Predict the structure.
Amino acid sequence: MNYKCLVFDHDDTVVNSTATIHHPCFVEFLNAYYPGESISLEDYFLLNFDPGFVPMCRERYGMDDNQLAFEARYWQEYVRSHIPQAYPGVREIMEKQKAAGGLVCAVSHSFDYNIRRDWAANGLPEPDAVYGWERPEHERKPHRFPLDDILARFELEPSDVLVIDDLKPGYDMARAVGVDFAAAGWAYEIPAIERFMRENCPLYCKTTAELAAFLEK
């Protein structure tokens, strides 16, 4: 076991959700409450990558705290009836980690109950800890709180942990704590994101099989 704890992002790392759920939901929300505004799937990925979802909403659409809370409620209602599919190979990686006595955690911009529901629906192991959107903003990635809390809660060192994420907020969080990071590149084909991840991350995995091979070395 290379790492005592694997910290997975949820959307587009564990499950294929942005293209099938989150982007269609956001477009529907804009059509209903911001007439004339829209966003392509590629731009949605790029702006979630940098500067992140909340800054995107504030800067591009002028949302304040109340409007952001309303959008979150709209999103919650939408995802209640939509369950994304896990990527092939993810379950096997998690099961091997757990079988070896390791931990599997989730740090995501989805809600705790959505993450647990999606993992259960896809036959994934129960996460040992979840840090989701229900937490205050300063306790969500890219802030370092989730990793600091995991290290303290499970008595781990930074070298014991690997973060697996497809976007920059996860990379920024891992870098702030000195935790190893694996870029998940299997969700989409967007050159700007792939270029940044390849240039800045020691490990870039284009497929889940590449991640599995790294973990088995």
In short: The chain has two domains: 5-16+86-216, 18-79. The chain has ten helices and eight strands. The mean pLDDT is 95. The first strand starts at residue 5 and ends at 8.
